[in-house]
Amino acid sequence: MAGYILKRLISAIPVLLGISIIVFVIMALIPGDPATAILGSYATPENVERLNRDLGLDKGMVQRYFIWLGNMLTGDFGRSFALNRPVIDEVLERFNATLVLAGTSFILCSLVGVAAGVVSASRQYGLADKAITFVVLLGISIPSFFLGMMMILIFAVNLRMFPVSGMWPIYGDRDLAALISHLTLPALALAVVATGVIARLARSAMLEVLRQDFIRTARAKGVHERSVIWRHALRAAMVSIIPVLGIQAGFVLSGAVYIEIVFQWPGVGRMLVDAILKRDILLVQGGVVFVAACYVMFNIAVDVAQTLLDPRIRS
Amino acid sequence: MNVLKMTRRALLATTAAAGLALGAAPALAQTPPGVLIVGQIAEPKSLDPHTVTAVNDFRILMNMYDGLVRYAPGTLEVAPSLAESWEISEDGTEYTFNLREGVTFHDGSSLDAEAVVFNFERMLNEDHPYYETGPFPLAFFFSSVQTVEALDELTVKFTLNEPYAPFLSNLAYPTGLIVSPAAVMEHGADFGRNPSGTGAFTFGEWRSNEAVVVEGNPDYWDGAPALDAVVFRPITDANTRTAEMLAGGIDLMVEVPPVALSEFQGDSYTVHEQAGPHVWFLILNAKEGPFADVRVRQAANYAINKEAIVNDVLEGTAEVAAGPTPPAFAWAYNPDLEPYPYDPERARELIAEAGAEGAELTFFVTEGGSGMLDPVAMGTAIQADLAAVGFDVTIETYEWNTFLGEVNPGLEGKADMAEMAWMTNDPDTLPFLALRTAAWPDQGGFNSGYYSNPEVDALLEQARVATTQDERAELYKQMQVIVQEDAPWVFVANWKQNAVTSANVENFSLEPSFFLLLDDVVKN
Asked: Is the CB of A42 less than 8 angstroms away from the CB of B137?
């Protein structure tokens, strides 16, 4: 097992190197440079040249890549042009906020989605199945940013049950209750689509398992129906549900960009969008490499979990 | 059945948990009295005034620092601030400032002539020990400064390498704000997060991506501000900013989107408007194609319905522009100038005279950018107006930085017209950088449409070396008449900056400089 994990970790290195090259080249090739973005109306060639020199952007591309890579390997991600602080501080702080949001959302959509799928499957074509299918299709069809704006309008502006935006209150304690009240709307808006997808796939996975012989055997020997479904069938179905959860985790993480903008959540998605618009090269590069590394690690973790669950893959 | 029972129980538990969480949530109280919460459009880059370029950052900085001079309230005319008075030499190259006595920085160090010298040396002298606390992107505002000397404790003299009339206006700009040398020496490159000035508010705290808090300075030399504190919250999304204002999460909102203004009618809110030194125009390619003929350029000015753009697209948040100089520069603006009327008939006649009927035009439009208002909708309206007089206009849309990369090097071989907008602090800046022959892109200027008129060149050069405001005003007024006639641009709109305050905010007004000054504001 340890050997397997190690092998997977080593294979992640070329992936991350490739990502670092791609993001570096993209940032170097897109039109517009940081000096022009900073100077705006005053970007005369003379001013741009002087500022590029001050920012260390006057060197060749290959040279700049290796300087950046070398610094990164020693833990130095550089300094953001637009925020005037170390990239790594900003990325960690922002990633933390995204984890809180996407993590809550992911737990929410996994639990609700799997539960809804199991209920649907166990009552196939029944009233519960139809109702769940209807709600799920509705959820999948609404763009999350639109849902978020509607939630703000109804629950924050009109009913004043929740704050409009941000992660913490401007005044008052930064305690769990304050976090929950700020987190509720964005986490729900982010979870809706993924919940629908998980519910649909959990339903079909369950249906497949429920038709198998060992389920009939379990029922025949008198196992309680609740036990048949939640203990025997769900465990077997999890083998095909877990990879879906892994994919949806990635979806929730990337979908967080829209939600972070609508709810002004100080997360890494909103940070990257702002950084791209300001051509904040080092922040974009550092942020993308960091997020990609986390994503790769998460995928490895999912594979390992799947191996542990499914004896056929283990050997 | 069991399955359903189970979910019912689960549902009950979830509902209960949600209810608990709600009950525990803090009441969404109104903001406290004496504390003003401002909805800003972005996270500031730094609180070091010499390193930033964005109006968003200036809104905070103008309340924490003072310059040697400032704009008199409600105008764009220079008035004393940290300097009580000044003398300008006959030839316009020596400026001697007499500093106010007894002013101290927030960190306790005192403001003297040496502190002023330190500020300008840090920005301009590459050998200065604190030059590397930059970069200072707008330092070129002071590139005409040859030397800065402290004559005595409270007298400082600037020597310019040539007469440069906009010098005083540039000192009133945020790049001319005076920072504490002691604080720069202590914090180095982190001064931007540990700022210290002489202004009405002192630095409180900066919670990244959440808020910058500044506190009232009871010892402010110009009288302590009425507010205990101001909180600047970055809320980049305009819809979310509007929602925060409606929900009571902020007391003052800047840059209200035109379509959201109708939300703020009624007694609970006050909408503030103020025209500023802004002009939105179309650069016309005068070097090649149909716009090389002045009659076709004039025709474009007649053909475009500016009233409709200003009233319908921009919902009245701008006024029709008459010429290259915004009326906010009251002293330099030529009030005799009338905007080109909307007259498609006249446009068709001029086009026929020039033989340019049915010409195909390429039009560069941006998705959005500093001062660009609603560029896509405006571009579409302009396209339709030009089509009505027989032009076949193709729009090419670019993201802002890409757009600048296309337009600034010049339109030759690429386009016939492009959108553009400028906000400046002196009537010299825009025409000098964008209308002179010596400002063509190949010479490092922004004259992307290659307009050239020796008369205009001469007037602008003269205005720059003139030393009295009256003399300069006369030259700028002549320049505006010629430029309007030559029509190197389509003059479209002058933006009125807006803001909304809630009912418990008093004494607030916007400035024509577009700065946000809060020292007189009261919050109940």
From this structure: yes
